[in-house]
Design a protein that fits this description.
- This protein is mainly α.
- It has one domain (about 5-75).
- Helices cover about 75% and strands about 0% of the residues.
- The protein is built from two helices and no strands.
- Helix 1 packs across helix 2.
């Protein structure tokens, strides 16, 4: 999966990874190591989160379409014979 992040956002994420390791593991890691971890998550895990988000969005759109269909059907007028 390929997506482009701004340099500022990527730098922030890398800094967050370094901070996580420091706080949770009492381990200082280099910017390079944090970037490698970021690349791993981006390539290996991000597609799973992305696909889950797509499924969630699909459910929301389907619900909205059903609601819209119901609203449209309420506009029908009876036909006299």
């Amino acid at each position: 999966m390929f997506f482009k992040l701004s340099k500022e956002l990527k730098d922030l994420i890398i800094s967050d990874i370094q901070e996580f390791f420091l706080q949770e593991r009492d381990e200082e890691i280099t910017e390079f190591a944090a970037e490698r971890i970021f690349d791993f998550f981006k390539e290996s895990l991000a597609p799973h989160f992305y696909n889950a988000a797509i499924k969630d969005a699909k459910v929301v759109v389907e619900q909205q379409l059903m609601s819209m269909e119901e609203e449209i059907l309420t506009l029908e007028r009876p036909i006299k014979r």
